Amino acid sequence: MAEQYKLTYFNGRGAGEIIRLVFAVAGQQYEDERVPRDQWPQRKPDMPMQQMPVLTITKGGKSTVFCQSGAISKHLARKFGLFGSNETEAFLIDEMLESLGDTMRDLQKAMFGTDENQKKESMKNFKETSVPRFCRFFNLRQKEFGSKYAIGEKLSLADLSVFNFVDQITRRGFGDVWDNKPVVKELYELFELVQSDSRVKTWLDKRPDSEF
Predict the structure, then answer these.
(1) Where are the alpha helices (DSSP H) in the chain?
(2) Domains identified in the chain, total number
(3) How many whole angstroms separate alpha carbon 43 and alpha carbon 10?
(4) Which partner from 26, 31, 139, 148 sits 20 to 30 angstroms from 194, CA to CA?
(5) In this structure, are residues 84 and 31 in contact, taking their beta carbons and an 8 Å threshold?
(6) Domain assignment of residue 41, given as a range
């Protein structure tokens, strides 16, 4: 019996969007449950880590709720052939995801800090240090191990994660970071490549308006 999937998250992109992108590219049907914020206090105690997103997988009448966006997206990517063609590529994809996560955490410091001066300094660090550092790393790996894609010869979770990174930064009003063309050129070209993928485009054309 085939597995059935339900993704539960807020009506936002955030940590849930990478999972939706994996489902879109895989052509896998799933229930996209979007929890209104006023219902979250009632739903929170039922979550494994009292946070979202969570993925409910049902098979043979048994349902299990899994948490952690990274673990969910990696599991699905492996299942749907989006985690490289061999162990080395899988290693490199995982490495890129963690490096991208470090970069996103630097952005979060700038977005969610409490001290305004510190937030300004964190944003400066994100734009002038964190993004160029990740771009240099991306260029290094793509040149040695990639093709038009980040790692290997086909679309993977690494590409979808880079796309999601660029997309969310732009949506949050920090798109000027991509004006530094010599630094971000290859990364932004990958964003445009993934954006043009028919499976991704279909999802982008139909995805609901969201709060964030």
Answers:
(1) 17-26, 40-43, 69-79, 87-112, 116-125, 131-145, 157-171, 181-196, 198-206
(2) 2
(3) 11
(4) 31
(5) no
(6) 4-80
Same domain, 64 and 97: no
Mean pLDDT, residues 11-38: 97
**What is the bridge-based pairing of β-strands 62-67 and 54-59?**
antiparallel
What pLDDT sits at residue 112? Answer: 85
Q: Is residue 60 part of a domain?
A: yes
For residue 9, what is the enclosing H or E element? strand 4-10
Whether 30 and 5 have beta carbons less than 8 Å apart is answered as yes
Inform me whether the pLDDT recorded for 85 exceeds 80. Answer: yes
pLDDT tens profile 146-172:
999 999 999 999 999 999 999 999 988
Whether residue 5 contacts residue 59, with contact meaning beta carbons closer than 8 Å, is answered with no
Please give the full DSSP string across 154-185, using - where no structure is assigned.
Answer: S--HHHHHHHHHHHHHHHTT-GGGGG-HHHHH
Read off the tokens for 172. Answer: 């949050």
Q: How many CA atoms lie within 13 A of 139 on its CB side?
A: 13
Q: Which residue is it, tokens 């052509």?
A: 27
